[in-house]
Design goal:
about 220 residues; alpha/beta; six-stranded parallel β-sheet; binds magnesium ion
């Protein structure tokens, strides 16, 4: 491909916050009297906060008013932020900073494409905000992945056509979002989950630009 831009999901790709989301959502479920598994949690990756809550409540057979839902979502976010606020630049996943710097040197543009409203805070905490040419997150988008909105907007801000963009994602919904936006997608994680990805990497420690251009 004629690689001109890389678009990155945040949680579970650049930082290990996917685990924090799981912990905080489980705490919410437990307080409401039920539990859910890591396997079920895969279905929450890439999904917005309120949509995640709806899915979890459905698993527990719990029905709440809109006001109660907002209160629980706020509580969950507070627990999540307690974990996020302990993060430092050491929490950027291995190889990520080098890879972003290599892209910059190679003249390839970078954008964040995350469903999270906490993305700006997380990027600042781990000190990688200035390595992105564009940041698109849950504060500018209204449709959750697998809708392509977040990536389409990212490509537009960068001024790069979709077929010259490559997305990095740890979520099945995110891979689908990239494809629906006309972009190729590299899965970061396990082949068992990311069955639709165009390529798979375990992380960023040994990714070569050359091999990505072959996609
Ligand atoms: C995505 C995560 O990146 O952001 C989801 O994969 C999360 O698990 C979503 O629900 C929204 O995040 P936040 O930080 O706005 O609650
Ligand atoms: Mg993710």
């Amino acid at each position: 491909m004629n690689l001109k831009a890389c678009l990155f999901d945040l949680d579970g790709v650049l930082v290990d916050t996917a685990v924090f989301h799981f912990q905080a959502w489980r705490r919410l479920a437990n307080e409401l009297g039920f539990d859910f598994t890591e396997h079920q949690n895969e279905q929450l990756k890439g999904i917005s906060r309120m949509e995640s809550l709806d899915r979890i409540l459905a698993w527990g057979g719990v029905s709440l008013t809109e006001g109660e839902k907002l209160a629980w979502a706020t509580r969950k976010n507070g627990w999540y932020l307690e974990l996020v606020n302990q993060m430092t630049p050491a929490d950027v996943l291995p190889g990520v900073r080098d890879f972003l710097e290599n892209l910059r040197e190679a003249g390839i543009k970078t954008a964040l494409g995350s469903a999270s409203k906490n993305a700006p805070l997380i990027l600042e905490r781990v000190g990688i905000a200035d390595l992105f040419d564009a940041i698109v997150d849950g504060n500018q988008t209204s449709r959750s992945k697998p809708d392509p909105e977040v990536f389409v907007l990212g490509a537009k801000v960068l001024g790069v056509p979709p077929d010259e963009c490559l997305v990095f994602e740890d979520a099945l919904a995110g891979i689908e979002a990239a494809h629906r936006g006309g972009m190729k997608a590299v899965g970061v994680g396990s082949a068992a989950v990311l069955t639709e990805a165009d390529a798979l990497i375990p992380g960023f420690t040994s990714v070569s630009l050359q091999s990505l251009r072959l996609l």
